[in-house]
Amino acid sequence: MDVFGSDTGHEQVVFCQDKPSGLKAIIAIYSTALGPALGGTRFHPYPTEAAALHDALELSRAMAYKNALAGLDHGGGKAVIWGDPGRDKTEPLLRAYGRFVASLGGRYYTACDVGTYVQDMDVVARECRFVTGRSEAHGGAGDSSVLTAWGVFQGMRAAAEHLWGTPTLAGRRVGVAGLGKVGKHLVGHLIEDGAQIIATDVSEPALDWARNRYPQVDLVADEAALVRSDIDVYAPCALGGALDDETVPALRAKIVAGGANNQLAHPGIEKLLEERGILYAPDYVVNAGGVIQVADEIEGFDFARAKLRATAIFDTTRAILQLAGTEGIPPAVAADRLAERRMSEVGRLRMIRL
Ligand SMILES: NC(=O)c1ccc[n+]([C@@H]2O[C@H](COP(=O)([O-])OP(=O)(O)OC[C@H]3O[C@@H](n4cnc5c(N)ncnc54)[C@H](O)[C@@H]3O)[C@@H](O)[C@H]2O)c1
Fold first, then answer.
1. Is 271 a catalytic residue?
2. What distance in Å separates the CA atoms of residue 195 and residue 94, rounded to the nearest whole number?
3. Beta bridge partners of 202
4. Nearest C-alpha to atom 10 of ligand 1 is from which residue?
5. What is the pLDDT of residues 315-345, one digit of tens each?
6. Distance 229 CA to ligand 1 centre (A)
């Protein structure tokens, strides 16, 4: 990907290296139009430097859109640490990384992502104050999956209202793929709302959790079996790429709303969903509860306030689905338009000199 080319438009991309600790990191800031960029740090053994840069650029752009639609006063940024978290993650490396984040003077706030955990943010925070997603013991908000699942539930309720007229999943069959941190909380909300759950996971402890906690949940062998079952709603809550050229034609659900990031395997999939009459609540809209939580932590975490903000995912999803309906465009396109509008209209206000 070409940083200065017309295909990106990022504000700033910083390469960070500390040879003694082995740190190789890229911090990408897509936009600070709405405020300091906010996005997690991914620690991953990329095959090449180009692959690491590509991920940093893509993920930081996606964060700008997610933060804008979540109503946050934050722009979009993301960092990648190029390495194997199991082998390379050490205190000196994380603290060296923290010093590079600090050097940006608050233009970028970091948090957890794939390969980094709240304990790692506690270490980064020893060198830098622009860190969120820390452990509760260190003044952080802890596990973000609670509000992520709450937000997904709100987005799903809005989709149900759009399609069936009432904002509830009562009496509906919801297929949940992935009973991890987000999936488990989501199942709880859905059962409380009166939905029937069909679920799958590749991990035996996760399946045991369902058998013990909610024996009424129907467990199926895998995602392929889940999408083919008689479900009204499909909630991908495992890895990315759940909606691809094989799953969408087989899918029996009328709504897709789930916590997983990057559910569309490629850009053409949203069209395929539309052709099949499947309502897709965009992943980055409905799973924003986690970033809402870490953004709240920057102000001094207040669970009730953060939950209120995550509850607003209902209204945002409703507005997106309405816009998509009236304009005849896929919901993902409608979501992008609303995000761009907020970045432009609210971002412009900084031109009023104070
Ligand atoms: N945790 C958050 O706050 C948060 C926020 C936004 C988005 N997300 C996204 O939501 C998704 C789930 O996150 P999480 O925190 O619950 O992760 P997790 O690792 O706790 O859970 C993922 C679950 O998916 C299962 N899984 C993996 N591959 C599977 C497969 N092929 N079929 C069925 N199950 C499979 C795993 O066994 C695990 O139980 C991820 O895509 C994550 O990026 C999470």
1. no
2. 43
3. none
4. 260
5. 999 999 999 999 999 999 999 999 999 999 9
6. 21
